[in-house]
Amino acid sequence: MMLTKFAPSRLVRRSGHVLALGVLASAVLLAGCGEKKDKPATQTAAKVNKDEVTVHQINFVLQQQRGLRPEQTDAASRQILERLVDQQLTLQKADELKIDRDPRVVQQLEAARREILSRAYLEKVGEAAPRPTPEEIKKYYDEKPALFRERRVYSLQEIAIEAKPEQVNVLRERLAAAKNINEFVEYLKTEGYRFSGNQAVRAAEQLPLNSLDAFARMQDGQAMLVPNPTGVQVVLLAGSRSQPVSEEQARPAIEQYLLNERKRKLVDDELKALRAAAKIEYLGKFAEPAASAPAGGAPAAAPAAPAAPAASGGLSATDISKGMGLK
């Protein structure tokens, strides 16, 4: 701000009041200019003792909340602010107690830092993925009729059965030969199988992608048997309804899916390249080849694609609608 210097005048000699007022006015103007210049870039939402909670902190948390509608933003912001105030209070007490020097806390902080930086790098790698073209989107739409053009919503009844590998074929045969679902359930009870039942309504996109074509081939009242790590799952199609999705409706979801797949591939390729270029040496017990996992100890694998629906003519939709008699 520019200040003008005036020569002494009779006003000064007449009284010191005018000079005092001038000095006061200049001080106010200077203070105003200083406040405007020194105003921080972030806005303070709350002061917690000697610390501040800023609007930027609130906005950062808001960005992590998916599906938040615009009319909910104000209420959500206030809830977030209260949580941040609580967090700041506990941080201040943690600082007083020097908790950040605790060895376990130091390890957790370092692990979090490593995770954040590693993820940020991989996200940066994924940003190079090109967006799919309209032609690629249409091709995917045309290749997945069960997901889009011929999409159905399935009413399913499921029976999860604990079984040994050698019992799977026996269960498949008994299911195909059953006159109705109650007969199959009675067989499970008589033979002492442990099982549980469940009912669900699932749209095509909620089913495992590698199983969708098999579901699409099923007629209402048919059943399929799917092996899994603990036994088998019997799935009965109690009913279904057609609910197709147009290419225009599906385009945003297809575009995002294809883009995510390309990002994933870039990340996988980058990790392979980094490993190939690095010198990695395993020491101690990790220098030995990994032992084969014992039976039942391996992580659960993704369910295998189911076989074609069992041709169990006795399993009609009417039989299914009577219930499975599960306890």
Give the number of helices. 11
Biggest sheet character: 4 strands, antiparallel
**Percentage of residues in helical conformation:** 40-55%
Low-confidence stretches: 1-37, 293-327
How many beta strands in the DSSP annotation? Answer: 6
Structural class computed from helices and strand pairing: alpha+beta
Into how many domains do the coordinates divide?
2
Taking all Cα atoms into account, the compactness measure Rg is: 34 Å
Averaged pLDDT: 81
Compute the separation of the termini in Å: 84 Å
SSE diagram, text form:
Blueprint: H1 10-14, H2 16-38, E1 44-48, E2 51-54, H3 55-63, H4 73-96, H5 103-126, H6 134-143, E3 152-162, H7 168-177, H8 181-190, E4 195-203, H9 212-217, E5 223-228, E6 231-242, H10 247-277, H11 317-321
Antiparallel strand pairs: 1-2, 3-4, 3-6, 5-6
Helix pairs in contact: 3-4, 5-10, 6-10
